[in-house]
Amino acid sequence: MNRNPLRFVLSLLVLLTVTCAVMLLFFSRPEGRSTSISQVVNDVKKGDVAKISYSPEEGVAITILYRDGHRTSSNREPNKSIAEYLLSQGVPQDKLPAIEVRQPSPSSSLLPTLGLLLGAGLIFALGFGLGRGSGDGKQRG
Length: 141
Prior knowledge:
Elements: H1 5-27, H2 37-46, E1 49-54, E2 61-66, E3 71-75, H3 82-88, E4 98-101, H4 106-133
Helix pairs in contact: 1-4
C-alpha cells in the first residue's frame, strides 16, 4: 500500500484548523468590554449596578448589568463570594445589587465532550478514508 503522508498531514491540519475555529466560535465569551473589579466596586457604591451574575462553571468571571441597561464583564476574587468581596471593600449592605448565580445547563457540559468526539470521529474517518484511497489502483494478488 502506497500512502501519501503529505496529503494526510495537510488534511489533518485543515481539520484541526476548522475544529479550533468552531470551538472558538462556540466557547468564547460574548461580552467584548471588560471592567476592573475596583471600577465595579465604585459603580456599586454609586448605585449604578442593577445586577451581578455568574456561573460556578465560569470560574471567576462575572457579568455586570448596569441600571442604564449596558453590560460588561469582570473577574471576582477567587476565594470569596461577590457579596463578601463588595462588603469587604466598603460597599454598604443597602447598596448591594441583586446577585444571581446561574445554574449550569445540562447541555453546556455536553458540548465540549461532543466536540471532542466529533473531532476524533472526523480524524478517524479521514485517516480511514485516506488509507483506503491511497493505493495506486493496481490490484495485487
